[in-house]
Amino acid sequence: MASIQRMVSPLTGAVSYRAQVRVKGRSSESETFPNRKEAKDWAASIETAIREGRHFPHAQSRRTSFDALAADYAATVLAEFDEVQRAARTHQLAWWAKQFNGLSLAQITPDRVSKARDVCAAETFSRGKPRSDKKTGEVIEPRAYKRSGATVNRYIAALSHLLSFTVKERRLLDRNPVSDIRRKKESRGRTRFLSDDERERLLKACGDSDWPALRSLVLLALTTGARRGELIGLQWADVDVKAGRALVRESKNGEQRTLPLAGKALEALRELKLRGSARSEHVFAQPSGFPGSYEHFDAHWRAALAAADISDMRFHDLRHTTASMLAAQGASLLEIADVLGHRTLAMVKRYSHLVVDHKATVIDRMVAAKGL
Asked: What is the spatial distance between Cα 124 and Cα 148, in angstroms, rounded to a whole number?
């Protein structure tokens, strides 16, 4: 049975209401609210949860630290993620652990999560190290960035998954506090892509690069629409230059997919193999001869962009260029999604304006065939 008690502060005269629900066989549960309605609503929700068998005492949640839960989650749930996803979630949860340092699960309330979310969005960070201008000798600090709305939402999603595990499997909380948290607005994403002239200039600059494999990598990116990590991770064992196929064993969405190889990209791969790249198991091997793929080729990429006089261009934008070229050749959004490796059409909606002519052609054919 619930009881609502009206309380008046002897110092300020402020009125508050304490709701108390007695749990059979246990001590009572109580919370304080600024008005009677909120107190009654809370008490009613607790009583309903008790009747439906969904109410769990908070004593253990007060004794369990956020760090202990995160360690439990990492050992049982994160262990089932692939390496890339596990690394991302581990990084995100380590950030949350700093925000909730010393707190128990019972203290992870929606308002605390909300404030931490705003900290996540406001924090600045930089990529790279300070460098000296070759002409003036001036020290140039790396550019400062803020997390995008989409990135902040990924952090919130990681925390939400952890706390859902707490509710459903460890039964330490009645409800996931992240459920009440507003997500950040996400931009539609960049749609920067190369013009025909820019594409030719970039490929020429890549051909003159100090890293000979850069042109092959860019050609593959342009003709397959594959992600940077998918291409850099390619191994010769997964490439069939005779059949013109390459197998991506680990994609971003966790599925394997096959990349068709054709044209200059296929020729470039054959040349790489003939020049001795096949001595390494990775297609894009370390120039130094060390084992592993050449993940950090950014200096060569930036040098090629500078030589080609191309600005505001990221390696990932080569995927947008692939999509734009496919759209120009009449590909549908479904076909573009298939080439880029998206499981839903939502991710390729940004290209919808590029396929207007194709849609008009399809409608014209239908009208002509049906006499409409």
From this structure: 11
Residue 102 to residues 98, 106, 164: CA-CA distances in angstroms?
9, 12, 20
Question: 92-115: b or e for each residue (b if 16 or more CB lie within 10 Å)?
Answer: bbeebbebbeeebbeebeeeebee
Choose among 217, 204, 206: nearest CA to 284. 217
pLDDT (0 to 100) of residue 318: 92
- The confidence score (pLDDT) of residue 190 equals 64
Q: Where are the alpha helices (DSSP H) in the chain?
A: 36-51, 59-63, 66-76, 83-99, 110-122, 149-165, 196-207, 214-224, 228-232, 263-274, 298-307, 317-328, 333-340, 356-370
Higher pLDDT, 113 or 350: 113
Which residue type, as a one-letter code, is found at position 369?
Answer: A
Q: Which residues contact 176 (CB under 8 A, 6 or more apart)?
A: 160, 163, 164, 166, 167
Separation CA 321–CA 302 (nearest Å): 18
Q: What is the mean pLDDT of residues 147-174?
A: 89
Measured distance CA(245)–CA(37) in Å, rounded: 65
Q: Cα separations (Å) of 346 from 189, 317, 339, 343?
A: 12, 18, 14, 9
- Reported as a pLDDT band with limits 50, 70 and 90, residue 19 is confident
